[in-house]
Amino acid sequence: MKEKRNITIIDKKQIPSEEPARQYYFMDIAKKYVAELAEQKGAPLTFCVTTFGCQMNARDSEKLVGILEKIGYVEAPDEKADFVIYNTCTVRENANNKVYGRLGYLHGFKKKNPYMMIGLCGCMMQEPTVVEKIQNSYRFVDLIFGTHNIYKFAELIVTALESDSMTIDIWKDTDKIVEDLPVERKYSFKSGVNIMFGCNNFCSYCIVPYVRGRERSREPKEIVREIEHLVQDGVVEVMLLGQNVNSYGKDLEDGISFAELLRRINAIPGEFVIRFLSSHPKDATTELLDTILTCEKVGKHLHLPVQCGSNRILKEMNRRYTVEQYLEIVHYLRQKDPDFSLTSDLIIGFPNESEEDFQGTLNLLRTVQYDNVYTFIYSKRSGTKAADMPDVTSDQEKRERMERLLALQREIASEHYKRYLGRTLRVLVEGPSKKGAGWLIGKDRAYIIVEFEGPENCIGQFVDVRITGTKNWAVSGVLVDGKDETKHDSE
Ligand code: SAM
Ligand code: SF4
Ligand code: F3S
Question: Across the strands, what pairs with 463?
Answer without folding.
Answer: 427
